[in-house]
Amino acid sequence: MTMIIKQIWMQLYQFITLVSTLTCPLLTKSEISPVLINKFELAHPGFLTLLRTWTLNSTSWGLFISCFNAIPETTDSVYSVPNIGQQLTTQIIPTRITSQITWPNGIVSADPLVEYSMIVPSGFLVPGKTNGNLYFISETTITPLVPSDKTNWFYHDAEFKDMDGDGFIDIIAGRANVPLIGAPRTQLIWLKNPGNRTITGPWKLNYLLSDGGPDIQVQFAIVDSLQVLFANSFFERKLQMFWSDSDPFWNDTTKLHVRHIDYEPLPYAYVQLTVDLNGDNKPDLLVTVNDEFNGSLIAYELPPSGEIRTGNFVKHILASGFKPLTQAKGRGAPGEGIAIQFYSLAIRKKPILILSGDDDGCVYLLEAIHDNDPSNWEYSTTIIHKSEKSTIGQVTVEDVDNDGYLEMFVPAYNENIVYIYRLMEK
Question: Are the beta carbons of 317 and 286 closer than 8 angstroms?
Fold first, then answer.
């Protein structure tokens, strides 16, 4: 019933948008206001991820939470809240999936491997927490996929592709090793799927770049019929794009090309290819620069059609001046930004942006000031959640109860609380 209501709502929205465009040009955007509808306690929530699960049916959302502490040589936990859409206003008690992973980071859906499964990248530069891995989790099975060696690598993301054309989906990831003394090392690797009936590990490790590769996020995309990999490096301060002359096969490194999207060395913390930011019906890159003194949120327009290999990526700084509550080594702001289409009775041709402030303790809402002008990249910035003492981790947003309104989940790490907001209009 809720799906039918949502479909009717979407049709009504499209109709009103069309009519207002033709007859009511003065209709303006209403103000988006977050309404706190619930919160629950959990020790040190860091990364929140919403994944499709089969708790009730195929439309069920599960909330997954990575928690970690800075105590050396201890393991950490991953929790879930199954069917979060039906628990939004009830007492929420998360279920612990595992307590045996060291510093779990943002969780990645692993549906290309096994439906309703996940990959948990792990490890960080905190002493005693640097020995990470990529953990495959399906139901109660937890499998480390990266072969262990004497070097402590940590991981933040994973992508999926049949790299060698054998019919089995492989895993691609960036990773970093940051010693106490000496320069960081970064690599771009891929793990070969052994093709077993069930997922067992470890998988065979292969290198795309054995040095100077990305270390945080990686994302495949099709641009002008060319498959590319967008990737960023926080420690090497690079924003890069890869492609292969032998595509769809990527296992021959002699056919691999890399270009720098921006030549300004910045601590690029997150990168994602969005459908469209400025309303010109072309995809854009949304990139976070996490810095101790002047963090920023940046958009890059892709080169014109047919020029993705050599054309210019046009850069737009959407917001800047972010910094942590207290300056210290390892602290920075902001965190990840996400682009969301906000459906309402008002006209919004451009998506809204939700930005985690990371160590500045805030969550921000960014809206395009000139919604009808694709050439204008000005945004208003509003604080929609603020903590005076807590780092804010990875925020996630979805309409989990199918009522037409978005829910926003905010992890306040030092407060040991996950806040739940509904994004409404005034």
Answer: no
Residue 233 tokens, joined: 């490096």
Q: What secondary structure letter does DSSP report for 19?
A: H
Rounded CA-CA distance 256/377 in Å is: 34
Q: Are 273 and 297 in contact (CB under 8 A)?
A: no
Give the rounded distance of the alpha carbon of 387 from its chain centre.
Answer: 22
Handedness of CA 411, 417, 421, 426 (dihedral sign): negative
Residue 167: C-alpha distances to residues 50, 110, 116, 134, 407 (Å): 29, 16, 20, 21, 38
Q: What is the pTM of this model?
A: 0.91
**In terms of C-beta distances under 8 Å and separation of at least 24 residues, what long-range contacts does 412-415 make, across chains too?**
412/45, 412/387, 413/44, 413/45, 413/46, 414/44, 414/387, 414/389, 414/390, 415/387, 415/389, 415/390
Q: How far out from the chain centre does Cα 39 lie?
A: 22
231: closest CA among 263, 273, 185, 191? Answer: 273
Measure the CA–CA gap between 35 and 27, rounded to whole angstroms.
24
Strands 118-121, 134-138: pairing is antiparallel
Is residue 34 within 8 Å of 408, Cβ to Cβ?
Answer: yes
Q: What is the 3-state secondary structure (H, E, C) of 233-301?
A: ECCCCEEEEEEECCCCCCCCHHHEEEEECCCCCCCEEEEEEECCCCCCCCCEEEEEECECCCEEEEEEE
Residue 28 and residue 295: Cα distance in Å, rounded?
31
Q: How many CB atoms lie within 10 A of CB 137?
A: 22
Q: Would you give per-residue pLDDT tens digits along the chain (426 residues)?
A: 444 434 434 444 443 333 333 333 333 456 899 999 999 999 999 999 999 987 766 678 999 999 999 999 999 999 999 999 999 999 999 999 999 999 999 999 999 999 999 999 999 999 899 999 999 999 778 999 999 988 899 999 999 999 999 999 999 999 999 988 889 999 999 999 999 989 998 999 999 999 988 999 999 999 999 999 999 999 999 999 999 999 999 999 999 999 999 999 999 999 999 989 999 999 999 999 999 999 999 999 999 999 999 999 999 999 999 999 988 777 999 999 999 988 765 667 899 999 999 999 999 999 999 999 999 999 999 999 999 899 999 999 999 999 989 999 999 999 999 999 999 987
Edge to edge, the sheet with strand 406-412 lists 32-41, 417-425, 406-412, 396-398
Which parts of 42-94 are beta strand (E)? 45-52, 61-67, 76-81
Whether residue 197 contacts residue 140, with contact meaning beta carbons closer than 8 Å, is answered with: no
